[in-house]
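Write out this protein's structure.
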Amino acid sequence: MPAEVIFYVLASHSVQQSQAFVCKLIEKIYRSGHFCYVLTDSAQQAEQLDKLLWTFRAGSFIPHQLFSGVLPGYNGTILIGSEPVPEGWLSVIVNLSMAYPPVQGSGQRIVEILDSSEASKQAGRERYRHYQQLGLEITTHKL
């Protein structure tokens, strides 16, 4: 089975709603027994998400850390960063960046989150075409 790409298109372009959705999605990925790499455009964006994951919901715990080239001791850690995705974290990539994440192949899942702004949708269309050209299985959820 080729890699799978899932697009979530949010109805709003509110930064707070988008960030809340990202945190809930990461929590869901973690609770389902997977760990992921959250690819960001910048270290500042990664730091902001790192802080949000500690505070977005009372009682929630998601083991995570900023990635700066050093792998964590615990394999189930959610990594967040703008650095290239480390080999062991390629199975699920939550792409919050404008970049194309690396495609490893069979069994991999790439999650794209778009807000309703025209800039986000246009960038999403370009990434959609890129994934389509690679022959990946693509699913879109409009929320």
